[in-house]
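Postdoc handover notes: sequence design on the structure in folder B. Input tokens:
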């Protein structure tokens, strides 16, 4: 047999094997996945070299859309991307519903560790970051007993998390508290497509802050820009309120092209992630004056009053992906 003919046969066999594997994955009824590591990278194509498009966090339920050695998933903000199988625990609809019904512990510290035993010297099971969720199994001294989505059990310090419903009851979602959370991230690094304390882009910073207040909003700045109430910014900024989102970019062919977003702090100051999380000012006389972003400021949006009142803006208890009847 000629060499080219053999090569075609090998390629055909490999293609058939890939098809059979994909069919088997689709036929097993496991159409959902739960993020099984602290932060899960979602990429444009199924390859480690591919561009990262967003992230998801431990405990989030995702829909499985496709399989090509990696999984294409859709996250609770309806964003899609490809994720390595090691980051996910695939489940059936019934298993997903059981996960959503189960009592949870939410990580409240910026970072933490799950240990194999209620002892800081014991083996680590996983790292965790703010916003991660695990099953709540009980208490053991200074620890919560928890289970990761794949069933691994361990212990999280009580100072690093809280049972979900207890956390919700004590959560303060006023503007001052949200901006205080934002300021806790000052100096944290920029990461393209990042949405966790391990690294954030500009819109990821907004999402990371709000997730710590149980809120989910659209992923990208351009998507966030069309939510809530649009505000044309007055020259003296007098019509802005702390907590408003300020959008930046350029106007081309008569269209606004949003490329950056920040929280307005008041007093002509804003907090954003560009290189790192920092406080900047629109005031030329201020020591932290940001001429670049002042020059490309477009408009603002008042988003917080519209949480749970507008599609795409919700707390997790109102988000479909967190519901036991999610399909």
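Designed sequence:
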């Amino acid at each position: 047999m000629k060499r080219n003919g053999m090569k075609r046969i090998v390629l055909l066999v490999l293609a058939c094997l890939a098809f059979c594997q994909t069919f088997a994955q689709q036929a097993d009824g496991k159409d959902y996945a739960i993020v099984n590591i602290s932060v899960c990278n979602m990429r444009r194509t199924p390859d480690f070299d591919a561009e990262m498009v967003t992230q998801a966090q431990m405990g989030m339920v995702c829909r499985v859309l496709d399989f090509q050695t990696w999984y294409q998933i859709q996250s609770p903000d309806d964003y899609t991307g490809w994720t390595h199988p090691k980051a996910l625990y695939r489940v059936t609809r019934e298993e997903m519903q059981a996960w959503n019904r189960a009592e949870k512990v939410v990580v409240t510290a910026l970072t933490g560790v799950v240990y194999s035993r209620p002892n800081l010297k014991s083996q680590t099971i996983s790292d965790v970051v703010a916003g991660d969720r695990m099953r709540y199994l009980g208490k053991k001294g200074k620890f919560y007993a928890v289970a990761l989505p794949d069933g691994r059990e361990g212990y999280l310090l009580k100072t690093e998390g809280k049972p979900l419903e207890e956390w919700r009851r004590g959560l303060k979602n006023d503007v001052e508290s949200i901006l205080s959370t934002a300021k806790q991230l000052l100096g944290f690094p920029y990461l393209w497509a990042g949405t966790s304390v391990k690294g954030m882009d500009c819109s990821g910073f907004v999402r990371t802050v709000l997730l710590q207040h149980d809120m989910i909003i659209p992923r990208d700045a351009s998507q966030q820009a069309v939510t809530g109430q649009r505000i044309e910014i007055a020259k003296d900024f007098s019509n802005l309120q702390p907590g408003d989102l300020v959008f930046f970019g350029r106007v081309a062919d008569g269209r606004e092209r949003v490329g950056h977003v920040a929280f307005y702090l008041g007093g002509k100051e804003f907090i954003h992630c560009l290189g790192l999380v920092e406080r900047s000012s629109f005031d030329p006389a201020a020591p932290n004056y940001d001429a670049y972003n002042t020059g490309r400021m477009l408009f603002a949006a008042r988003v917080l009053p519209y949480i749970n009142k507008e599609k795409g803006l919700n707390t997790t208890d109102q988000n479909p992906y967190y519901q036991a009847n999610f399909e």
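Context for whoever picks this up: DSSP finds seven helices and 24 strands in the chain. Don't rerun without checking with the PI first.
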